[in-house]
């Protein structure tokens, strides 16, 4: 086996290998700084998923934890909270322990009433009511630069469109976006060169969210508004008003989810389309194929890598796990698993039986998935109606970041006016 991809990086902090971890399962994988990331986040994750890579590998980096490398494990672990708990969902462990947002740190049945509170404003029926407003935002942004012959997609659209939509749904001022984006970046890609430093960075960002939403929660308690925050903070949990600490976590989670995931997904998708004009032509040729193809996009460009806590000692896929072990679930590796998808790096708009964990699975399946699907569909429809052919600017070098949520910046697109 060629081990070049897993060559040691001497400057990084390493955890000692536990006794129950066989040496042959150890790989040097840093979820926050993937080897080969300059070629792309998904390309870097895919290099780890070799034919001879075990279904579970262990890395001494980011505090020491397992990584599930195959789609069947990622799907199964998400669906089984009785064996794989959400009490710690971030790596390194120090960051996971500092993370205080709910209900992502909860397991059923404690999790269930909080999830119902979130779903009040994000269920499919509610999201359909705002489709025309979402479309208007997309049209306004695209028409603002369509005549220019180019834009930095990540900066001018990807980082603006979902944020404007979400802040409007939450009833928050657009000028707060920059501050909230900085906090979101530190939550999903915490700075620091050791687990302790990353834990402190995440703790500070978590506090920043709580400090921001605290006064807003107080102001909207008892209110009759229809914005997402008012709906949530006036929900009852087991027949009682939601407690302040839980409201802080719930509203902060809402903002974190709305400000980081779709923002980055859109840019990954557009980089691919800019490099594959034949796929763009196929999307333009058939409105129905475009709508159906959105699910294929979600398979191909998953951005989340969160973790689960092993509840008890067990043997899992031939590997000994101990209570307290953490397993990272890179959702990209489900969608890119060639055991489940032929030629998985290619966007195939005719692909059948598309399976992925881009929105997770089980009780923590993403509450914002209906909004995300709408935002991606509308972006493709309105962009291609106004900019039917486009490419990456010659010499463009997108800058990729891995982490709990993968990110990309510097996405210069050009087109003929």
UniProtKB/TrEMBL annotation:
UniProt-recorded Gene Ontology molecular function terms: heme binding; iron ion binding; monooxygenase activity; oxidoreductase activity, acting on paired donors, with incorporation or reduction of molecular oxygen
InterPro entries in the cross-refs: Cyt_P450, Cyt_P450_B, Cyt_P450_sf
Signal peptide: none
Pfam (any one): p450
Family per similarity comment: Belongs to the cytochrome P450 family.
Entry protein name: Cytochrome P450
Phylogenetic lineage: Bacteria, Pseudomonadati, Pseudomonadota, Alphaproteobacteria, Sphingomonadales
